[in-house]
Amino acid sequence: MTTGPGFDLERLIATNASAAFNRLAGFEVVSAGAGAVELRMPWRDDLTQYAGHLHAGMIAALLDTACGFAAASIAGSVTASHFSMNCLKPAVGRCFIAKGTTLRAGRRQVFARAELLAENELGEMSLVATGVKPCWFRWTVEVSGCRMGAKLMELSISVGNRLTRG
Questions:
Q1: Neighbouring C-beta atoms of residue 26, cutoff 10 Å
Q2: pLDDT at 138
């Protein structure tokens, strides 16, 4: 499989809807295009940690998804090579907005970052966390050999490094 053009808003909405975790958490794709995306998630008491703030796992999921969708808006299908986040203050608000942007697109990776904002009851926004995520794209699969007598198929998957599975 190779990447095609980036995903548009409609495709990202469909991708979001197809992810069971995103549906469970209530992620909504608000806008997307040209290397940027905005997600929204309403406050839910069942997604908090022991002190009543949004759980860091949910913060990570929002940032990760915003980065991935921003990268996908220019590169199509992507997958993370790694992810990091910084929590800046407790995440409390009536809803959360994750804004993902593409920083750089290389030959094999797209680098994206995201900010998570908490919106209070007055509509004021405050930055609560940031994340960075390099994403691989241009995945290719090549069939390099097949011995039908032994019913063995060897696939070579090219992802920068060559891996062989037998």
A1: 13
A2: 59
Give the pTM: 0.80
Cα gap 120→135, rounded to integer Å: 32
146 located within any domain: no
Could you give the number of structural domains in the chain? 1
CB-neighbour burial class of residue 108 (10 A; exposed 0-12, middle 13-18, buried 19+): middle
CA separation for the pair 109, 31 (Å, rounded): 23
Q: Which residues pair with 32 in a beta bridge?
A: 37
Let me know if residue 111 belongs to a domain: yes
| Dihedral in degrees, nearest 10, Cα atoms 19, 21, 26, 30 | -40
b/e per residue 42-52 (b: at least 16 CB within 10 A): ebeeebeeeee
Tens digit of each residue's pLDDT (9 = 90 or more) over 104-153: 998 889 999 999 999 999 999 999 999 999 988 854 444 444 443 333 33
